[in-house]
Amino acid sequence: MDIIRWGETKIRKMTFWDMGLIKFACIFFGLIIGAYASSFIRENVWLFAILFIAVYVIVVYRVVIKK
Description:
The chain is mainly α. The protein has one domain (about 1-65). The protein contains four helices and no strands. It has helices at about 1-10, 15-35, 40-45, 45-65. The chain is extended.
């Protein structure tokens, strides 16, 4: 549990710009991975779409609805 508390304290200290940089880093990493796995992604696009929707719904529930 100590690593979770450590992570939470670090996240609370982040600014708007830090979060933006993390998002850009994730986007660039995704582009690099996508370039190498493009044929696999095209063959299984529906599976990834379903997984994306499921994860998105969970995130929206935890962030917006759940208090």
